[in-house]
Structure formats: structure tokens, C-alpha cells
Design a protein that fits this description.
This protein is of the alpha+beta class. Helices cover 30% and strands 23% of the residues.
Length: 328
């Protein structure tokens, strides 16, 4: 879709010789346009919810809320959070890094829910045989202890998988191949024993902890959040959450940064090449192609100081979906 959007933008600009936008400038404008359109989905979700509550929204093929939800759910991911370990032995602080490019590979736009898995069933064991998608430990006794859905963590690579089936007393079928080598240490976290943690503000948690009636407990935990870390409460020796696989975060990620990649011919004209390693298409649905082109044209109009381009793009974007702008 990104090449089609760029061709549309260049066609509009070149029609009246307004100017040329370089690939680097286009990629910058594409990033901002996609982010703007992405954030509009959350605003539109709120508007359509209000329309449903006032019986002004349709159903079946006219159910706008369904289309918006499906688009947003594309960006909804589940990741296990990386623990913050001061000295590789201190795991009683219940602190974890929030989702980011360096910790989970995705930047979090909004955290939806946080689930805790406090019970460790097997710890400090090693596998004794390698087979694809299997955990085999000849010294283990999995039957009666492990259940489907339990979380297996490779302690060396920090890769995780869930248990599909208990094949034998010492062999598990996993959801991913996380044990390519033998004698790899691992541990298993119970997937059945979990509890959802409630987010509270940093100022509110102080007041909650002052009372035995309102303080977070193992049954009703809470968490606070700053720019990089999440603090789980209660912080006590009886409620220790300190390993990868014990805190799962469900969150909306930012869309990946779009990049129109190209090869340059002898004449200097860039030709689209999607085989480049850093190529990235837009992540929004196909129906947003027009919207993205109009938003990029607005940035182009500002860049080349042509108000006519900006006004044209704004008028077309406003005309494209009047539903939300007119029904407030």
C-alpha cells in the first residue's frame, strides 16, 4: 500500500508542478500520517460507543464499531515483561520493565491489562534430550504436576512457550521450539494460578498501603507505573514476582514505522524495491489509503509552502468520512 500512497501523493504534487518530495521526506510524513490515523481510531471508538448508547448506530453491515474494533485488535499484543533485577539475585522487589523496543520489541501505546502468575512449579532443572517443540527431562515427573497452559521458560535465552500436552512423565509438547540444545536450564510457571493486577497512581498507592483494609494483597494485587518500570504490590516475602513468565502484559502497541525503500538507477530516479531488509508497509487497513495520502499531502503542502495543496488535502479528508465529524 505504501507505494500506491506515494504514487498518489507525487501525482497530485506534479500535476501543477508544485514540487517533488524525496523518499526520506515521504517516509517522515508517512510515519506522522500513520500515527495520526492510528490515534483517530481510539477517538472514533469512543464516538461510536456513544452512538450505540444513544441508539444512533446500526448493526450488521452498518456496524461501524465492529470495523474499528477489528482494526484496533490488530495492534493488541500479549508479552511477558522482563524483570528488573538489580544484581541478578534480588527478585523480591516485584519490579518489571514496561513494554518497549528494547524489552519486548514493541512500544506500548496503552496498557490494557496486567496478569500475574505467582506460582513456580519447577525451578532450576535442565533438559536432557532435544526434539522439536518438546521439553524432555529424564529426571522430571510432569504427570500430576504440569497442566496444559503452563508456561515454560528457557533460562538461557529467556524464550517462553506454553505446554500443549503432557506426553509422558518426562516429556512435554510445547507451543514453540525453545530448547535447541541439551543441558539447558529451565523453569515452569503455573498457567492456572493467575490473578489480574489493578493499576493505581503512584500517589494513591501510598494511601492504600497505610490501611490493612485497602492495601494490595496476593488476591487483589496492584501496580504503579513510571516511564520505564512497573512496580507490583504487595511487596512482601510471601508474594514474590520476579521471573520472566510471571507478569504478562496485554497492551496496544504503536504501529511500525513505515518505510518506502528503493534502488537508484543510473539516472538518479528511485525505483520502489520492497525486497530491502528495512522495508515496512503501512499497518493500517487498505481502506485508509485515501486518508493516509491526504494527510501526507497536508505535510507536503506545509513543506513546499503551498497552501493550495494543504487546503485541498484537508477538504478531501473532511469529505471522506463526515459521519464522525457531524454526529457529536
Amino acid at each position: 500500500m505504501i507505494n500506491s500512497v506515494r504514487n498518489t501523493v507525487l501525482s497530485v504534487l506534479n500535476k501543477n508542478n508544485f514540487g517533488y518530495i524525496s523518499p526520506s521526506d515521504f517516509n517522515l510524513y508517512a510515519k506522522q500520517a500513520q500515527l495520526e490515523a492510528f490515534e483517530e481510531y481510539f477517538s472514533n471508538a469512543n464516538k461510536t460507543t456513544n452512538l450505540e448508547n444513544t441508539r444512533m448506530s446500526g448493526t450488521d453491515y452498518s456496524d461501524i464499531q465492529k470495523a474499528i474494533s477489528e482494526t484496533l485488535e490488530y495492534f493488541l499484543v500479549n508479552d511477558f515483561l522482563k524483570p528488573f533485577d538489580y544484581n541478578n539475585t534480588d527478585v523480591t522487589r516485584n519490579r518489571f520493565y514496561i513494554p518497549s523496543l528494547t524489552t519486548t520489541g514493541n512500544e506500548a501505546y496503552m496498557i490494557n491489562r496486567v496478569v500475574l502468575y505467582p506460582t513456580i512449579l519447577v525451578n532450576a532443572s535442565v533438559n536432557t534430550f532435544v526434539q522439536t517443540d518438546r521439553l524432555i527431562d529424564s529426571s522430571a515427573s510432569f504427570i500430576g504436576l504440569i497442566n496444559p497452559g503452563d508456561i515454560v521458560v528457557n533460562s538461557v535465552t529467556n524464550k517462553t512457550a506454553t505446554v500443549y500436552t503432557i506426553l509422558t512423565n518426562d516429556e512435554l509438547l510445547l507451543s514453540a521450539n525453545i530448547f535447541p540444545n541439551t543441558t539447558t536450564p529451565y523453569y515452569i510457571v503455573s498457567g492456572k494460578n493467575y490473578v489480574e493486577s489493578e493499576k493505581v497512581s503512584a500517589g494513591k498507592i501510598i494511601g492504600l498501603n497505610l490501611s490493612n483494609l485497602t492495601a494490595p494483597s496476593s488476591m487483589f494485587p496492584a501496580y504503579t507505573q513510571d516511564s520505564t518500570l512497573m512496580q507490583i504490590y504487595p511487596t512482601s516475602s510471601t508474594f514474590v514476582i520476579g521471573k520472566l513468565g510471571q507478569v504478562q502484559c496485554n497492551y496496544f502497541r504503536y504501529p511500525k514505522e513505515p518505510k518506502w525503500t528503493y534502488v537508484t538507477l543510473g539516472g538518479g530516479e528511485p525505483i520502489f524495491d520492497q525486497t530491502q531488509l528495512d522495508y515496512q508497509d503501512f499497518e493500517l487497513p487498505q481502506e485508509d489509503e485515501f486518508k493516509l495520502a491526504m494527510k501526507i499531502l497536508q505535510y507536503c503542502g506545509v513543506s513546499i509552502r503551498e497552501n493550495e495543496v494543504t487546503q485541498f488535502a484537508m477538504a478531501q479528508e473532511q469529505h471522506e468520512q463526515p459521519t464522525f465529524s457531524q454526529q457529536q
